[in-house]
Write a structure and sequence with these properties.
The structure holds 2 protein chains of 2 kinds. Chain A is mainly β. Chain A has no helices and 10 strands. In chain A, strands 2, 4, 5, 6, 8, 9 and 10 form a 7-stranded mixed sheet that branches. In chain A, strands 1-3-7 form a 3-stranded antiparallel sheet, with no helix packed on it. The mean pLDDT of chain A is 95. By secondary structure, chain B is mostly beta strands. In chain B, a hairpin with a 5-residue loop joins β4 and β5. Chain B starts with a strand and ends with a strand. The chains are: A mainly beta, B mainly beta. Chains A and B meet through β4, β5, β8 and β9 of A and β5 and β10 of B.
Chain lengths: 110, 119
């Protein structure tokens, strides 16, 4: 079973700063199977990145994803006030079908 | 506009059953796989179950296998989750999600329905 470990648990930054979030898999995964979601308090999660680096529809280009193998990164180039939220990485496996989430990284205002 | 509206949550005693429903609109329902994802209060996201467009492929998390059953009715644009033998650890907000056609990620989420298992 693949385990996704996100770090750090909490990231304290100021608006305008760069945020770098890490997602590490317990074994190598296909880049096409890695996604990132954003969740704000009281809201459902929103898809940001799929295929490790493709932005979902309507996602600003300050969000970018990268990585391969076991190490993946979500970067927010310049934090806007609306970007302070919890971010989850996710991986899916086909056989057997199983979807796994990381435990989340909270980006909070410093 | 894509809409996913969950219903059926509530307070239930341990060992009892509950059936969740998700009404979909704004897209061609039988073009998409659908899933349930849950979130315990103050915790992270946990995938629960998923079903392909034609119900030919179904999967469950180990934590619910044998107790939960996912199904869909394409004629009614609806997704269901039958939850039996409920436990306290099943307490969570249950989200209905749509899978991007041709991929395996969740592009639309409902607002969730809360299930509380307590005596």
């Amino acid at each position: 079973e693949i385990v996704l470990t996100q770090s750090p648990g909490t990231l304290s930054l100021s608006p305008g700063e760069r945020a770098t979030l890490s997602c590490r898999a317990s074994q190598s995964v296909s880049s096409s199977s890695l996604a990132w979601y954003q969740q704000k308090p009281g809201q459902a999660p929103r898809l940001l990145i799929y295929g490790a680096s493709s932005r979902a529809t309507g996602i600003p280009d300050r969000f970018s994803g990268s990585g391969s193998g076991t190490d993946f990164t979500l970067t927010i180039s310049r934090l806007e006030p609306e970007d302070f939220a919890v971010y989850y990485c996710q991986q899916y496996g086909i056989s057997p079908p199983k979807w796994t989430f990381g435990q989340g990284t909270k980006v909070e205002i410093k | 506009e894509v809409q996913l509206v969950e219903s059926g949550g509530g307070l239930v005693q341990p060992g009892r059953s509950l059936r969740l429903s998700c009404a979909a609109s704004g897209f061609t329902f039988d073009d998409h796989a659908m899933h349930w994802v849950r979130q315990a209060p103050g915790k992270g996201l946990e995938w629960v179950s998923g079903i392909s467009w034609n119900s030919g492929s179904i999967g469950y998390a180990d934590s619910v296998k044998g107790r939960f059953t996912i199904s869909r009715d394409n004629a009614k644009n609806s997704l269901y989750l039958q939850m039996n033998s409920l436990r306290a650890e099943d307490t969570a907000l249950y989200y209905c999600t749509r899978v991007i056609s041709g991929d395996y990620v969740f592009d639309y989420w409902g607002q969730g329905t809360l299930v509380t298992v307590s005596s």
